[in-house]
Structure formats: structure tokens, C-alpha cells
Amino acid sequence: MSTILVTGGTGNLGSLVTARLRVAGHEVRVLSRHAAEHPVDLRDGSGLDAAMAGVEVVVHCASSPRGGDEKAARHLIGAARRAGTVRNLVYISIVGVDVVPLGYYKSKLRVERLLEESGLGVTILRTTQFHDLVAQLVDTAAKLPVVPLPSGVRVQPIAVEEVADRLAELAVPTPSGRVPDMGGPEIATLPDLGRTYLAATRRRRRVVPLPLWGKAYAGFKRGGNLAPSHATGRGTFAQYAARRGR
């Protein structure tokens, strides 16, 4: 059994990864700003060396669209080097970070590069968007009189539980480098998924496909965020929406 540190271990994905690793018998250190045992803010790195002591594997789930991911990665890499025991740093990334010019995606790609150039053993998994993200987008849009969703944008949503399963499998001392991408079982447009979700949650609202502009939107319309040849997920968005509706 290994000593494993999970960053963002109280979050949506990190908490599931933590639970799976503990069931497998590993010693897991949950690292986040709100964690009871290891309250570490990766943006300044305080307390990180103590949390990293003796760790063999790091699963890096902490991330923020508001920025700071690259600084956090540098602190994490530095602490892993100083610890001298880390054999594998597992990172969760996003399909399309190298082809869709969205600011958050660019930051995730730069973190990938930092890890690959760190000299540490690294495993990188890219996945498509989680079901929860699609639902959050629809819930936000549904606050308006009609529900505007980007037209022409297809997504391939995947269950966060399945991603947690895969990360737990990869959290071993032997690094795997860039592993095959992981996508959901189906591809659909955002407006169609919005209608599915609204119907399942019993909201009779009109979805309006909304054309947008910009290079990032064009990247999504080209399907840069999709992994059709890696549709390994099993749970569909309709199944997720039905559970939310209950």
C-alpha cells in the first residue's frame, strides 16, 4: 500500500478519488484549503512540505478557472522534489486543452508542460466534460426567461465517478506518462442536453440555441473538446439527469 496525497481532496472529483483509494487500503492525505489534517493553500505553498513528507504518489485534482493553477503546480513540483519520495504525480486534465484556445484550457496545458518538464514521474489523464458541468451550465442559463445555450457546440459528458475510478487505478508508484483520453459514451449538442436535463428536472422552459463568436467558440464548434475514439464512459447524461430529477 502507498502513501498518497490528493490535492483538492474535498472537491467533487477529489473526494471520490480519496474514498476509492482508502477502500483499497492506501494511506491518503487530503490536501485542500478546507481540509482538517492538511489545510494547504497551493497558491502560496505554505504547509505543503509537511504534507508531502513520505508521499509516494500525488493525485492532483485541485484546479480553478479563476486562475492560479500554474503557480500551484510549481509549488507542488517543488515540494515533490524536496520530499524525494514522490514516484508518480497524477494529473487530471481536459480533452482539447491543446486545440481549444480558451483561457482555462491554456492554463491546464501549461500545467501539463510544467509536469512533463519537471523531471518527476508523471501520469496525465485528459477527460471530456463531467455531467455536473453541463448541468451547472443549464441551471445558470435557466435563471433567464428562456434558456440560451451555445449553438453548434457538441459535448461528450462523462460521469465523474468513472473518472474517479480511473484516477484511482492510475495512482500507483509507476508513472504512465500521457495515458489515453477518456470520453463519455455519447456526443450531443448543448441545446439537446439542456432539453433533456430540463425535462428530467420537470422544468418546462424553451431552450434557445445562441450563436457566439471568438476563437474558443470556433474551437468547440470544430469538436476540439471531443474524444469520439475514446468513448469509454458508460453512464449517459440522460441517466444522470434522471437521477437529478428524482
UniProtKB/TrEMBL annotation:
<protein>
    <submittedName>
        <fullName>Nucleoside-diphosphate sugar epimerase</fullName>
    </submittedName>
</protein>
<dbReference type="InterPro" id="IPR036291">
    <property type="entry name" value="NAD(P)-bd_dom_sf"/>
</dbReference>
<dbReference type="InterPro" id="IPR016040">
    <property type="entry name" value="NAD(P)-bd_dom"/>
</dbReference>
<feature type="domain" description="NAD(P)-binding">
    <location>
        <begin position="8"/>
        <end position="133"/>
    </location>
</feature>
<dbReference type="GO" id="GO:0044877">
    <property type="term" value="F:protein-containing complex binding"/>
</dbReference>
<dbReference type="InterPro" id="IPR051207">
    <property type="entry name" value="ComplexI_NDUFA9_subunit"/>
</dbReference>
<dbReference type="Pfam" id="PF13460">
    <property type="entry name" value="NAD_binding_10"/>
</dbReference>
